[in-house]
Specification:
Layout lengths: L1 E6 L4 E10 L4 H12 L5 E12 L1 H16 L3 E5 L3 H9 L2 H7 L1
Parallel strand pairs: 2-3, 3-4
Antiparallel strand pairs: 1-2
Helix pairs in contact: 1-2
Length: 101
């Protein structure tokens, strides 16, 4: 997985993911979570338009990220879901998970 972090003047953090989000990314994702929650944040947007594949561990890592963002007072959303990633996020009802936090 590759990612880019963009922060705007309203403290919205946009995470643009590319490639594959799998178990092999757990160390990088843990580092990303620390970067995101230790900065000023009000909203985190995960752009998955360039993410080609996500597995169950990848979903779990997104859930951990969402929980940490909420713990520090932010909100998390996803956007630009396509292909396999859209099917998986829909199947696991990721949007409903976000509403319960």
């Amino acid at each position: 997985m590759e990612y880019v972090i963009v922060v705007d003047e309203a403290c919205t953090i946009r995470l643009i993911f590319a490639g594959r989000l799998t178990f092999s990314d757990h160390v990088h994702m843990a580092q990303l979570v620390r970067k995101v929650v230790h900065g000023p944040l009000t909203r985190v947007v995960i752009d998955v338009s360039s993410l080609e594949f996500i597995d169950s561990v990848g979903i779990g890592m997104l859930m951990v990220l969402a929980e940490e963002v909420y713990k520090f007072g932010g909100r998390l959303t996803t956007e630009n879901q396509r292909g396999q990633v859209a099917r998986v996020l829909t199947t696991v009802q990721f949007d409903k998970f976000l509403k319960f936090l």
